[in-house]
Write a structure and sequence with these properties.
B: Helicase, Ruva Protein, domain 3, 3 domains, rod-shaped
Chain lengths: ~70, ~375
Amino acid sequence: MSLYQEITKISAPYLGPAAESFIGKQCKLFLKIEPESLAKHHLGELAKWIEVGGTRYMDEARTKELAAKVARA
Amino acid sequence: MKISIRDKIHSAFNVINGLMVVVALTGVLALLAVIHQGNQAVGVGARLNVVGLEIEASNLKAGEFEKEFLLNIKGKGVEKSRQEYAAKVTPEVATIDRLCAEGARIARTGEDRARFQEIRTLARVYTKAFEGLVAAKEKRGFVDTGAEGDFRNAVHTIEAKISHSDKGEIAMLTLRRSEKDYIMRGLPELITSTHENVKKLKAALQAAPMPASDRTAALESADVYDENFSVLVAADREVDSKMAAYEAAGGELETASAAVAKAGYKASEASLAASSTTAWIAILLGGLLSVGSVGAGIRYGSRISTDIIHPVKTLTDVAERASLGDLSLNVAHTCDDEIGDLQDSLARLVTAVRFYRTENEELAEEMKGAKQ
């Protein structure tokens, strides 16, 4: 299982069917990488962008919780 | 640990059922206590009361036989009166003794047992005192028996020996008068006066013109008379003394019998009062526990409403608004049961719909820009 798939799995309880698209979008748009090339050193940055972008769709508490989980992955 | 709605409802009903079981058990225990105390009141208190009354009745019967004995001495003589009446006292005292043994056996308190033991002792003292009185009465005798019989013989002897002396007869009549007064009234001064009159009789006999041998015989008879009179007086005193002892013993026995009857009645009353108190405590406890059950029902009903009905209502509202296109509501996770799971599912769904809707809007904007 790739790191991208793992992060998608972590995000699924928060984003449901949109998890894969949301994480993919954050990778491409802000990290400027292909989702499949996501590596451990990207996770801190990814968590930050999840926290920024996630509040558009979720409440702040859930967004912070997801970001923390991603950062720890 | 995750507690399901089913577990919550079960625990609420278990608490209420538990309280109901406690109420029922309290009721049953109170009823058993009331039955026990009722049995004590009827079985022990009432029986003690009956035993006390039976003792009193036997004591009264014994008293009746004693009085009959004393009253019938003059009519039937000491011996016949003893056989017909005094002999019946002993069986009554034996009945008192048997009842006391039963009372001491069933009595619940040391005080009551001591009362019955006291009556047994008093009954023995009373029997002894009565036997002493009967013996004293027999010793004293009446008319022809005992000390009185001996005295009468002495009177007849002396009367026969002074028939030919006028002065002697006058002195004798004076003596008989004081003697009869004593027998009727029993006053101490009449004893002295009788002894004085014996002396006067003897003086009259000394002065009377009669043969020396007759004088000597008459003087000896006067001495025998005086001696028998003294024996009669002593017998009377013994009767008085025994009578006083017997009356004191009878009085004490009567008082103790009445006290034990009252004690039985009080024991019965105490048991009934305890029974009533227990019933009231049971009513109070039952009432308090019932109120507690109602309170617990209200509390758990309110908790079920807060934990289940309120979140379901919120979820319904969110689902309704989301289905109509309003995605502005956030679905909060408020509990860790099936409702919580449903809240998470709905939150994910709303989040996903928001995301896709935003993506579509952005795509539409891009396409619009590309066309221009």
